[in-house]
Amino acid sequence: MTNEEQLNKLCKKYDKLQIEYGDKSLNSIYFGGCIDNPDICFVFMNPTKRNIASKKDWKGYRSPWIGTKNIWDLFNELSLINKDIYNEIKSKKGNEWTEGFAKRVYDNIKDNKLFITNLAKCTQTDARELPNSVYEKYLDLFLKELSIIQPKIVILFGNQVSSVILNKKIAVSQCRKQEFILNKKYKCYCVYYPVGNGRFNINKSIEDLKYIIASINNKSSK
Q: Where are the domains of the chain?
């Protein structure tokens, strides 16, 4: 079974969990990018209806951050997205994203050997805080995602996502640039959440990610 086929099976399970933990009027949001040994897997929290791919009539990719602007500032600062595509993102209103443009964005993410996902795929109507118990419902499926795509490193955004995935209390401020090993296999780093209420930390996120990426590149070149 191909990686794509295995991931599609997970998506069906995510759709069932949407009914239980998300808003029933919205689609669950999955993941997007390189699904075969990406250089980096970025793990965020959970989607909201600001992602226009959550609309029931959307037929294209159901990937994180479609129809939004701010998160792409981080990818641009890290030179992980094509500059022309980034400029087009910044020029568009959320409802101006088309299925074709979303494909262009995520094809570029794929070309740059990146994978973007949320720990929880249950779309909410707003950015309400979810309890750990909801994220934990998705943990086994998330670990299955990792086992399918086999990322070189995993970036965990925020204290809550980091704590649930690593199964220990994490304060990002206390472990910046520190490597953790998940399931004796995956190199993980905990980084400040860079959007929403965490927008004021985006410069710290960029600083840490530049350090992490540079250190990984230096090790691989030796």
A: 3-221
